[in-house]
Amino acid sequence: MKIFGRRDSLTVVHGGIAEPTPPSRPAAASVAAVTIMPQIDSLRERVLKQIDPTIAAELSAAGLQRQLEQMIHEMANEDRLELSAREQARLAETIAYDMTGYGPLEPLLRDDTVSDIMVNAPDCVYVERRGKLERSNVCFRDGDHIASIAYKIAARIGRRVDESSPMVDARLQDGSRVNIILPPLAIDSPCISIRKFARKRLDLDGMVVNGTMTTGVARLLGIAARARLNVLISGGTGSGKTTTLNAMSHLIDPSERIVSIEDAAELQLQQPHVVRLETRPASLEGTGEVTQRDLLRNGLRMRPDRIIVGEVRGAEAFDMLQAMNTGHDGSFSTIHANSTRDALTRVENMVQMGHFNLPLGAIRTQIASALDLIVQVQRMRDGVRRITQVTEVCGLEGEVITTNDIVAFEFEREDAQGRLHGRYTVPQGRPSFMERLEYYSLDRAWMAATQEI
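Given the sequence above, the corresponding structure tokens read:
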């Protein structure tokens, strides 16, 4: 059977985890390390040599692990190795994970309390739980072991990662987003970053329970989705932009046709009529690349009611604005920015990246007429992701895009448990898109929601 990585390098850690997991951790993350002994190195090599690849490929993960346990038990008795049944089971589990899954990452991928996994080096793996980073006791045998898992992740979705193409964005079967970077770009070791998505898909009510927003703010966002406002969701890495977009998308009418465009497919849209498009990198010959901009142009020909761009990063921002300005109301997208005002500046800069000769005034006119709302999401220092601003794009005054904060979060205090508390301020005034709300008979609901905040 093909074992990823060089066999002559499998000599450091066998359990995938360097020390036993604390009792408070879920059982799914508790694959403890097998004691490091030369005899176990030899035992592992003997097991790998005796595996029949044809038979192993036909077995389920559980069936393979049972046969590995039996094989290890028999070999340990033959060699008179002092291995407990628990240690033998752990070694069998580790070999099975390497053969059928993603090696030491498997227990973390199965742990629902983990939202991010960051592999920095064989013995340096961090995870995020409840918005806080902590060092995990998971480890790999060496850099080759990490690289082998990276190759496996990329290959399963038809991507490649190697010395000639040492960076790749990929996804796992469950939709989790993966970024991989290999040496020589990563100096010390191959690095893998995984953004997991909760198996329980959050809606706006669930985000209220999590403390992301109040009930009033959730109602405002829900009304914005139903009234087909064009919404840009802004925030830093890991702030919850995609989660917010997914939650708002629940309010889209099931009868509408949605075309989603992403670099790595991760949106979890619930509607029955969704067409998902994903970019494609260039081939080994440097041909065949399909960018988000290409997909956006094609998407406009697919008769969409709404276009959702997973994240705008470059010149495709211009095409996104064009789509919003040509009858595709209710379109959503996300962008990396520190504030709603910064988000406008970034869109402006991205359009200029692909249209150097386009006058700045024309760009700002496009932005002002395309966007209705910008939602700012922030992961705050207590680990909670919160909506900190909901800003309307009012229009253009001279050459300046005017905005107005519909909702703004103001920090007030920190409690004894380190949780931050604050309140939302709601400036009085009539939103610039009130006519749209009236058209959908949502104007009274909007005003009522602002009173609840």
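Residues 221 and 373 are 9 Å apart (CA to CA). Try to locate this feature in the token string yourself.
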